Structures are given as structure tokens and as C-alpha cells.
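Lab notebook page, bench 4
Experiment: in silico fold of construct C2
Operator: M.H.
Input chain length: 144 residues
Purpose: comparison with the prior construct
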Amino acid sequence: MAVLAGCRHDQQSFYASRADAEKKGEFDRGWLPGFLPKSSHNINLTYDLSPSREWCGFEFNRTDAETLLSSVKPANPLALPIARIPTPRVQWWPKALEGNLNAQAIQRAGFELYSVTKPVSQAQNETLVFAIDRTNGRGYFYGN
């Protein structure tokens, strides 16, 4: 039974728009970063409370790509800030972003890698790794 309990996520949510996610408090609680484009929609979010980790997929208007990218920095493929992403076991998460990350495979899947580190307390930071497909206006991020 303990093994099965470890496979479930504490929370899974879908929001048709950024405004819906704001109303539910996802930005205030820190599960979604405030710099997600205002045009963000079709937001899938799943997270575990212990250990704290989150997976998010979203779509955005392609014209907002530069605004989004101004808030993150390109990830060095030779020194990724997070080298491995646990499988979230949700259908919407891309296979190229599971397990040990391979920058070339991620690029072949149409994504560019970025990262950002944000404070969660005075003593602790959280790193988010983003995979952005600006051509199709979609993005994913994982954080722990």
C-alpha cells in the first residue's frame, strides 16, 4: 500500500486561463510563477507537497514568447540546473522531459531549455527548468 501512495500526486488541476488559476490562488501559493504570460491558457498543474515538486504545462500566444523568455535564462545543456525529472504519470507531460534530461533529444522535440531560480524562503531557493516551444506557443516547467 505504501508504494501506491507514493505514486499519487497531492494536487492536479486544470485551468482554462491564467485568470482562472489566479482566482484559485495558484500564483499566491507559489505553484505558478508570476511571469507566466497573461495569455497563458490550457494550464495543467500537478504537484507533490512532500517532497515539494511541481510539473506544469501551458499554452500562450506566440507574441508573448519574448516576454516570457525575458524572465528566464537559457540553460546550459552541459550543466543543467536539474539533471533528472521524475515521471509525473500524467498524459500531458512530454516524454522528452522525463528521467535523465538529454538536451539534444529535448531540442529535437521542439523545445528550448531555460531555467530560473526563485526564493521560497530566506534560507531556500527553488529552481524551475522550462522547456519552451515558442513556434507553437507552449511551455512546460518542472521545479523542486
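Observations: Helices lie at 2-7, 18-23, 65-69, 103-108. Strands lie at 11-17, 41-48, 53-59, 73-74, 84-85, 99-100, 112-119, 125-133, 138-143.
Next step: discuss at group meeting.
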